[in-house]
Amino acid sequence: MQLKGCSLEFRDKYNLSVHMVRHTGEKSFQCQSAGCTKTYATKAALDVHQNTHSDNRRFKCNECDAAFIRKTQLTVHVSDKHTGQKPFRCNWPGCEYQACYLNRLQSHKLRHTGEKPYKCSQCEWTFRLSHHLKTHMLKHTGERPHECPHTACDKRFQSKQAMRTHFKRTHSK
């Protein structure tokens, strides 16, 4: 099974439907923890995320205060933050990019192909990364989810970066 305009193939409808979310950006599973606004494309991804709100992080980093639910998460963290090991290498001719996460390598490879699999449902814009589509969608909804942390300021922003820039320029003098 295959989507029109996509090079990937799937064995069944379930895996195809999970993959379709990459193109639509739809994330209908929302975390219900207080103060958390994270949303996910699948129930499985939401379940993994919800563990971050629990206290059973038994895999602790020896280098910093980070702690994880799974040993594999700790291994990737140590590799990324402390040892600098990047086991995933780009096989594009002439490219020396390396990543500590497989999904970062997969996103990087889209730079070579020019593929932008995330399409806005409201306009013709397409994006290489799903979080770029998510940020773009805020332009259509008008939503401003990022609140300035300064107690005397009630400004809100569409992106964390815009909020940080505002905070530095306005409140860090």
From TrEMBL:
Q: Which InterPro entries match?
A: GLI_C2H2-zinc-finger (IPR050329), Znf_C2H2_sf (IPR036236), Znf_C2H2_type (IPR013087)
Q: Which GO CC annotations does the UniProt entry carry?
A: nucleus
GO MF? DNA-binding transcription factor activity, RNA polymerase II-specific; RNA polymerase II cis-regulatory region sequence-specific DNA binding; zinc ion binding
Report the superkingdom from the record.
Eukaryota
Domain annotation C2H2-type: ranges: 1-28, 29-58, 59-87, 88-117, 118-145, 146-173
For whether the record's keyword set contains Transcription regulation, the answer is yes
Q: Which UniProt keywords apply?
A: Metal-binding, Repeat, Transcription, Transcription regulation, Zinc, Zinc-finger
Span-the-membrane segments of this chain are: none
Looking up Pfam families in the UniProt record yields: zf-C2H2
Reply yes or no: does the keyword Transcription apply: yes
Please list the coiled coil stretches: none
Q: Could you identify this protein by its name?
A: C2H2-type domain-containing protein
